[in-house]
C-alpha cells in the first residue's frame, strides 16, 4: 500500500508545500505554521489538530482539500489547524469488522458492524451513544451525528489492539459517548 | 414508508416543537423563527436553508441533531438556519443507481454508481468535478469534498426525472461542479 499526501501552508494549494509518504508528528518542524490546504494522492490518512497526534482527529481520503473547512474535523467545533497526520495502515483490509457495545467495558447490548451506517438508529441501534467498541479487522470512522457529521473518531484494528473500552479512549478530545454514524475506511 | 420529523426552536430539543409527517415549505408559518434542533424519527429528509426548498440543502437521516451545527449543510459555509424541509420519498428503493458524466449534457467519460464512494478519485474518477448526472433509481447525496464533507446536493430519481444536466441543476445555490464523494440514501 502506497501513501502520499501533499500539504500546503496557503489555501488552494498555494505557498510552501511538502510531500509526505509516512507520518508527520509536527508539521511545524518542516517550517509550516499550519496546513491550509492539502491533496491526498494515495492511501487514507488521519489528521490531528495538535502535534503528536493529539486533539481533534479527522479522516483524509484521496482527493483535494482546498481549505481547512474541507478537512476540519467537525461543524460543531470549527477546526482551523492540522499539525500532525499519519497513514491509516490497516485501512486496506478487504474486510472491516467491529463490535459496538451499549455500555463501557464491552457490556450491554451489542451490534456487529461490517458495512457503512449513516444512521445507527436506522439499523436498529438502541440510542445515540456507543459505550465501548472492538475493531476485529480494518478501520472505521465514527461520527457524533447521523450522516457522517460532527466529531470524528478513527478506530483501527492495529491500534490499542482494536480495543476502545470507554469513550475516553475514542480520542484524546472525546468528551461524550455520542456516536450516531459509522463507516469503513477502505483505501 | 413512514416519515416523521420533530423540530424545535431552541437547541437540545427545547422550546416550541412541532411534528411533521410530510413536507414543510416554510417553518415560520408554524411560529418558528428557525429550527435550532431536530429529531428524525423515521425516513430520510432533506432540509433547506430558505423557504420553498431554496438555498443550501442537507440530508437528514434518522437520529438526533441537538444544534444547527449537527445538520448545517457545510463546513465551508456555516448554515445557521433550516426554513423548509421535505421527505425524500424515493429513498427507500432497494437499489440505487446513477451515472455520472465528466462534462455537462451527459458528455465525456462516465461512471456507473450503485454503492457509497467516500472518494470518487479513489474509485478511478478522473478529476474533482462531475459535469452532469442521471439517477436511474433511488436517491444519492453528492458532496463537494472527499469523506462526505462540504456542500451537499441531494439527487433523486423522481425529481427532475433524475436528470441533472449541468451543475446549476445540482442545487439552487450550486456555484461549482466540484463533487468528490457520493453516497446512497437508503432509509
UniProtKB/TrEMBL annotation, chains A, B:
Q: Give all residue intervals belonging to the Beta/gamma crystallin 'Greek key' domain.
A: 3-42, 43-89, 96-137
Q: Name one Pfam family in it.
A: Crystall
Q: Which InterPro entries match?
A: Beta/Gamma-Crystallin, Beta/gamma_crystallin, G_crystallin-like
| PANTHER family xref list | BETA-CRYSTALLIN A4 (PTHR11818:SF19), BETA/GAMMA CRYSTALLIN (PTHR11818)
Q: Which domain of life is it from?
A: Eukaryota
* BP GO annotations: lens development in camera-type eye; visual perception
Q: Which SUPFAM superfamilies match?
A: gamma-Crystallin-like
| MF terms (GO), sorted A to Z | structural constituent of eye lens
Any idea what this protein is called?
Answer: Beta-crystallin A4
UniProtKB keywords: Eye lens protein, Repeat
At the highest ranks, the source species' classification is: Eukaryota, Metazoa, Chordata, Craniata, Vertebrata
The record's subunit annotation is: Homo/heterodimer, or complexes of higher-order. The structure of beta-crystallin oligomers seems to be stabilized through interactions between the N-terminal arms.
Q: Which PROSITE patterns match?
A: CRYSTALLIN_BETA_GAMMA
Alphabetical list of Gene3D superfamilies matching this protein: Crystallins
Family, similarity comment? Belongs to the beta/gamma-crystallin family.
Amino acid at each position: 500500500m502506497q501513501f502520499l499526501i501533499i500539504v500546503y501552508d496557503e489555501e488552494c494549494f498555494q505557498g510552501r508545500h511538502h510531500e509526505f509518504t509516512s507520518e508527520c508528528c509536527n508539521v511545524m518542524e518542516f517550517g509550516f505554521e499550519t496546513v491550509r490546504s492539502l491533496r491526498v494522492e494515495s492511501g487514507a490518512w488521519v489528521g490531528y489538530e495538535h502535534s503528536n497526534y493529539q486533539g481533534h482527529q479527522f479522516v483524509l481520503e484521496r482527493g483535494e482539500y482546498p481549505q481547512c473547512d474541507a478537512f476540519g474535523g467537525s461543524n460543531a467545533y470549527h477546526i482551523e489547524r492540522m499539525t500532525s497526520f499519519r497513514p491509516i495502515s490497516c485501512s486496506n483490509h478487504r474486510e472491516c469488522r467491529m463490535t459496538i457495545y451499549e455500555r463501557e467495558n464491552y457490556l450491554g447490548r451489542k451490534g456487529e458492524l461490517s458495512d457503512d451506517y449513516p444512521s445507527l438508529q436506522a439499523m436498529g441501534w438502541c440510542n445515540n451513544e456507543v459505550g465501548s467498541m472492538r475493531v476485529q479487522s480494518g478501520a472505521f470512522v465514527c461520527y457524533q451525528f447521523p450522516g457522517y457529521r460532527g466529531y470524528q473518531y478513527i478506530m483501527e484494528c492495529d491500534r490499542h489492539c482494536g480495543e476502545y473500552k470507554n469513550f475516553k479512549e475514542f480520542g484524546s478530545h472525546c468528551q461524550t459517548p455520542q456516536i450516531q454514524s459509522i463507516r469503513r475506511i477502505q483505501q
